[in-house]
Automatic annotation (TrEMBL), chain A:
Organism: Ensifer adhaerens
Protein name (record): D-methionine transport system permease protein
Domain of life: Bacteria
Lineage, top ranks: Bacteria, Pseudomonadati, Pseudomonadota, Alphaproteobacteria, Hyphomicrobiales
Amino acid sequence: MSFENIYWGDIAAALGQTLAMVGGALLLTIVVGLPLGILLFLTGRQQLFQAPVAYGSLSFVLNIIRSVPFIILLIVLMPVTVLVTGTSLGIRGVIFPLVVGTSPFFARLVETALREVDRGIIEASLAMGASTSQTILRAVLPEALPSLFAAVTVTAIVLVDYTAMSGAIGGGGLGDLAIRYGYHRFQTEIMLVCVAILIVFVQLIQAGGNRLVTHFSCR
Amino acid sequence: MVMVRLESISKSFAGKDGPVSALDRIDLSIAKGEIFGIIGSSGAGKSTLVRLINLLERPTGGEVFVAGERVTDARGERLRELRRSIGMVFQHFNLLSARTVARNVAYPLELTGRYGKDEITEKVARLLARVGLSEHAHKYPRELSGGQKQRVGIARALACEPQVLLCDEATSALDPQTTGAVLDLLRQINRDLGVTIVLITHEMDVIRRTCDRVAVIDRGRVVEQGPVTDVFLHPRHPATLRLVREAEPDGGSLEAISASELGSSTVRLTFTGPNAHRPILGRIARENVVDYAILAGRVGHIREAPYAQFIVSLSGRDIAGAIAGLRASGVDVELQGGPQTEQTAVTSPRVGERALHVV
Ligand SMILES: Nc1ncnc2c1ncn2[C@@H]1O[C@H](COP(=O)(O)OP(=O)(O)OP(=O)(O)O)[C@@H](O)[C@H]1O
Ligand SMILES: [Mg+2]
């Protein structure tokens, strides 16, 4: 094994792609998943807008998406991806399936985080004359902030995993590089470097997330 | 003037096998400016009752009036406006842990959207000074003691200058000393601001120290109500007797003794107000040449007013004269014994029964 013929330029480019995919997909996952999570929370049993049918239907759809293995979701979604983004390749083509794949997961985490907020706080807010939206925005979400940051952290790590998979079908990024060189061309050292970078990346996300969680924990 | 009126209020919850009744045709009138106590043992329906006043709970029957206005089906902005005029204090404080003390108190003001930043800061400072927390304005709730947390809860509840303050077991999570301080604060607020206070509790002591009038609720019904002096010194309903007994240091020997028949010369004497400090009993006994034995008694205060109550067995020449003399001096005399009194039904407290009510 020799580390002399490692293409650092390619690796740097792949790292850039991974960062772009994880960052872009994370942002969109939050944009899509947070409202879904709030909706799940509100329509849940004994909650502010208890609505069993709405909750059941949404829950059912999200569970279906969650039960499809991501690699299969990628393939199944390809035509839709092309329709939405114009391509199924590259970063643009990959972010759409990534968002579809992680949003239901993130929405569930949001639901759980919001349910952990003490009911007494919601009741106090309403008793003070807050509307439902004020209660959610000014009381429930701020109270749940540490759990929400934890949810974002877990989702970001799942996204790192998914980007590696999507790389395999033309997405680019470190996972793609590792598979192309390490698996198809038997250049194990490139694969090792890619994996090492991914390990560091995940550790950094986790450490950053933990800091945010602690910083916003006022309990 | 009546501040809060509940008219034939019923509330039932959906249970596994049909609706479960929590409140059954409750009628209550709470006057403007008074401290009205609602007492009952656990599960009696106290919280449900108080939550109906600001419509956190909707009644299944009956009407709610606040300040003369029917609010039973208020919704939307009207409901929020109503809730702003009714402050609420909770047993477990329910403070926002992500906000400092000052920002917790600012919360209800921010919600209205009517006040500028400076105005809020100024109001908050005044509220914190009122509850004695000015130095803790920038702390988080987790850094406060229970009593301090409840003061924040009270300041917050007063922020929108409510006409009514609802306190649901506001002192139940506090130690006795802190309880006293918080009750004093509530009375001071009642006196200074004229806020009507509805105080929910399961402790008769809290009622005795704080309230003007009290309603006893038991299994969803009001079983007794009136001025605290009447209800506390002359409890009628078994539920009230039980609650009064729990407040007695020795488990209420007074009520227990009155149960066992002591003969027709046994009387219960109640001295209230200045009479509690006057040497009436000795004088009357001498004048009528009777002897007396004190069988049981309790002495204390209802709010600031002293009271003394004894079960006394009288013997000697002119018992009737003594009783007439006592009555003439303003002492409340109740003849004990004989099967016609309601106390016959009351047995001494059983351990199991009492344990049920220690929450
Ligand atoms: N949301 C609810 N759903 C079903 N039943 C309820 C609900 N809230 C209260 N109840 C029932 O109504 C009755 C009265 O409850 P409530 O909380 O008013 O009692 P409480 O007097 O406040 O008791 P505690 O002293 O324990 O607080 C109880 O039997 C309770 O189980
Ligand atoms: Mg209660």
